[in-house]
Amino acid sequence: MSLSDVTKGSILETLEEYRTLGAGKFHQKWGGSDKNVDYHVVWEGGFYPSKAIVNAAHYRSIGDLAMEHRGYSGGLATMIPVLEKHGFDYTEGKVNWDREEMILALDLYFRSPQPGKTSKSIAEVSDLLRKRAGQLGRAVPPRFRNGDGVYLKMMNFRRYDPSQLAKGNKGMERGAKLEAIVWQEWSGKPDRLREAASAIRLSIQNGIEVGEAFSDDMDADLAAEGGYEYRKHRRYERSPINVRRKKASIRNAGLPLACEACDFDFEKAYGERGADYIEVHHKKPIHTVKAGTVPKLSDLALLCSNCHRMAHRWGKLMSVEDIASLRGN
Fold first, then answer.
1. pTM of this prediction?
2. Residues 86 and 106 reside in one and the same domain
């Protein structure tokens, strides 16, 4: 018998049983675990381990509860097609840590004293990362970026720390490649690490912009000059919502997406490759903007990459009009 024998009814019965028995008793009966779940079934506002649910539903379907060996292998290629076939939603249980998340974990690592597993600091970062996942449109399972996970990620950095290695403390032997990159980039810059972590927290708390940050050439070149205020300013400019709103207003007026300082038009210069491309610039200094404020369209300007860079150079914001004057426009 194969998983193709699983019916929608058997899955629903199994989900009801899980909810009635609770995780412990359910797994005692059927096997499996709620730990290290690759995919969750999303049902009536709850999250359930897909392998355990589908396998239990399978044995329920074939009517053999006495089978001693129950296979819980598979995932995307085996369990998920069954769930999709019967119209069940699902979400990833494991999502790799990205750069912003690791910066927050590294910031925890360098705090003095270093926070413990049940500390308020660990809980706060856990709450932030769960909120961020929701902002990114992900379903958030119960164990996603929980306190244990945040603590373990923080301790993963121990294996790169010379002071810990000298004491014979190796930390976790296995980890993500990105951990080494983040350690190399930020461990020797404690002040900038604190600034970056503060900017990430601000973005999550206020929903200004989420996703990978500090990753483009402009940031790498100018962040040291603009510091924390610059980073907050850039979050307004990189907000997908703000970019879409500004571009739509220009199109609705029948105007081209051209630089407001020098009239450069990417589509005219690069053809199809340049179509719909322009950078959005926030005119107001960030200290004049209340956190979480949605900018007016008049506060946003379209700038080409060159004019945008000049507007931010030396950490002092320059007006679009002044940039146009420099260009002789």
1. 0.51
2. no
